[in-house]
């Protein structure tokens, strides 16, 4: 029986997940299908609660359904419980729905591949933004021993809410204090949409940042954001957001199809070519 998997959310037409998983299915010689399935917000609760009748053996979940899908799961992995959202679902042999969050693993895997040794001496981290991506990244940084993790957001109350969720090793900070925080940072991560194609620029001065610090941007359109360009010019190691997208897909593919794929230069080049074609 052909195993069918899909990216689910609203909308999903822009998703590059079918390209990523399709590449692995073909290159690894695995029989299976990975497609798109749009799920309207008003249908989401029933869709995930009745997932066993969908014809899928599993799925990815994208916005705005990550919390709705979580409530439908019978079991959750540690990351999903801690982050409060799922992005990967699968059915077991008894038809029970299980959920995981692989965003933090994608973030960590991307850094491990692109900036090896980045976590050898974990220290202070600065995370810009307080949304869903920030939640996964803060959790990932804490797992690797970074502390404190400073959460900097223009709406301070959102930073406070996220920091309180993770406890004393994460600290909410005001945007106007960013300069002082950068001076002591070992890693800086942007999780906001600032700097994304069609969005306002992320206007910050990196001059206080140590040249040993790693700079990562979760944005991947464009691949080299203004933040990464500024960081690279001053000698910091930089990591773009595409790696996180590719690495977060690995655990799901292994769960659905029984083979653990690799994030290869060929896969990255395929997605980069698609990004450039549509930019």
Automatic annotation (TrEMBL):
Q: Which residues form the active site?
A: 66 (proton acceptor)
Q: Does the keyword Glycoprotein apply?
A: no
Entry's family note: Belongs to the shikimate dehydrogenase family.
Q: What is its EC number?
A: 1.1.1.25
What is the name attached to this protein's record? Shikimate dehydrogenase (NADP(+))
User: Which positions fall inside the SDH C-terminal domain?
Assistant: 241-264
Keywords, comma-separated and alphabetical: Amino-acid biosynthesis, Aromatic amino acid biosynthesis, NADP, Oxidoreductase
Q: Does the keyword Electron transport apply?
A: no
Q: Could you tell me what this protein does?
A: Involved in the biosynthesis of the chorismate, which leads to the biosynthesis of aromatic amino acids. Catalyzes the reversible NADPH linked reduction of 3-dehydroshikimate (DHSA) to yield shikimate (SA).
Provide the GO biological process annotations.
amino acid biosynthetic process; aromatic amino acid family biosynthetic process; chorismate biosynthetic process; shikimate metabolic process
- Positions bound to NADP(+): 78, 129-133, 153-158, 218, 241
What GO molecular function annotations does the UniProt record carry, in alphabetical order?
NADP binding; shikimate 3-dehydrogenase (NADP+) activity
The Quinate/shikimate 5-dehydrogenase/glutamyl-tRNA reductase domain covers 125-193
> What PANTHER family does UniProt report for this protein, alphabetically?
BIFUNCTIONAL 3-DEHYDROQUINATE DEHYDRATASE_SHIKIMATE DEHYDROGENASE, CHLOROPLASTIC (PTHR21089:SF1), SHIKIMATE DEHYDROGENASE (PTHR21089)
Q: Ranges for the Shikimate dehydrogenase substrate binding N-terminal domain? A: 7-89
Origin organism is Stappia albiluteola
Can you quote a single GO CC term? cytosol
Gene that this polypeptide is encoded by: aroE
Pathway it belongs to?
A: Metabolic intermediate biosynthesis; chorismate biosynthesis; chorismate from D-erythrose 4-phosphate and phosphoenolpyruvate: step 4/7
């Amino acid at each position: 029986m052909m195993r069918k998997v899909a990216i689910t959310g609203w909308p999903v037409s822009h998703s590059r997940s079918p390209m990523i998983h399709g590449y692995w299915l073909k290159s690894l010689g695995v029989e299976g299908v990975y497609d798109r399935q749009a799920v309207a917000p008003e249908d989401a609760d029933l869709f995930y609660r009745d997932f066993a009748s969908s014809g899928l053996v599993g799925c990815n979940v994208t916005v705005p359904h990550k919390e709705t899908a979580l409530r439908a799961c019978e079991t959750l992995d540690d990351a999903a419980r801690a982050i409060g959202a799922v992005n990967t679902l699968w059915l077991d042999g008894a038809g029970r729905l299980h959920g995981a969050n692989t965003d933090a693993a994608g973030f960590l895997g991307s850094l491990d591949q692109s900036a090896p040794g980045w976590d050898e001496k974990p220290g202070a981290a600065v995370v810009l933004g307080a949304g869903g991506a920030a939640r996964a990244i803060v959790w990932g940084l804490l797992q690797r021993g970074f502390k404190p993790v400073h959460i900097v957001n223009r709406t301070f109350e959102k930073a406070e809410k996220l920091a309180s969720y993770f406890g004393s090793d994460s600290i909410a900070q005001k945007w106007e204090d960013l300069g002082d925080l950068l001076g002591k940072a070992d890693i800086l991560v942007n999780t906001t949409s600032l700097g994304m194609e069609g969005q306002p620029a992320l206007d910050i001065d990196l001059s206080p940042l140590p040249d040993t610090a790693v700079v990562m941007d979760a944005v991947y359109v464009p691949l080299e954001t203004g933040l990464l360009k500024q960081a690279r010019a001053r000698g910091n190691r930089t990591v773009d957001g595409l790696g996180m997208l590719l690495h977060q897909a690995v655990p799901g593919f292994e769960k659905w199809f029984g083979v653990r794929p690799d994030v290869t230069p060929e896969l990255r080049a395929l997605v980069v070519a698609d990004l450039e074609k549509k930019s």
